Amino acid sequence: MTRSFWLVDGQEITTSFAWEGSIVFSMDELYYGKVSEEFVETLEEVEAYRIALTDLRHLFETDLEWCNWGRIIHQNEYRRLHQSHKERLTLPARERYEAFKQQFPEVCQRVNLGYIASYLGITLPTLSRLRAE
Questions:
Q1: Model confidence over 92-120: pLDDT tens digits?
Q2: pLDDT for 49-92, tens place per residue?
Q3: Which site in 7, 17, 91, 129 is 20 to 30 Å from 48, CA atoms measured?
Q4: Residue 91 in contact with residue 99, Cβ under 8 Å?
Q5: φ and ψ of 77, to 5 deg
Q6: What is the residue range of 123's domain?
Q7: For a pLDDT cut of 90, what percent of the chain falls above it?
């Protein structure tokens, strides 16, 4: 399992989690040639594979199957980001946590609660209270 996060004023803000079979990448680097502002931390031992951006771009440009695979991954990631953003802006903390548990049950069992609280945009004491209720 991995966790992606931003550093904001010295504080880590969790942006996503990934687990077995997941893909972790930087849209900034892939699409805009910019160094990513997001960090990735392994939370458990992982076996990881990587591909150079130049090779990936070449595959996307020359192989329809790779191009469609990339499109589907990005569609799914956009939907996840959109849903997460909507939930943070519209749902109370309890409902955000319930939605998170539904969407990511394996994360709830495997990661530090502080990372989940950060992802949900709530404090650790608030998350602990929600879990106890």
A1: 999 999 999 998 898 988 999 999 999 99
A2: 999 999 999 999 999 999 999 999 999 989 988 988 898 889 99
A3: 7
A4: yes
A5: -70, -40
A6: 2-132
A7: 75
Does residue 126 contact residue 101 with C-beta atoms inside 8 Å? no
CB 30 within 8 A of CB 7: no
Average pLDDT of the chain, as a whole number: 92
Contact 108, 124 (CB under 8 A): no
CA distance 120 to 82: 14
Secondary structure (DSSP) of the chain: -EEEEEEETTEEEEEEEE-TT-----HHHHHH----SEEEEESS--------HHHHHHHHHH-HHHHHHHHHHHHHHHHHHHHHHHHHHHS-HHHHHHHHHHH-HHHHHHS-HHHHHHHHTS-HHHHHHHHH-
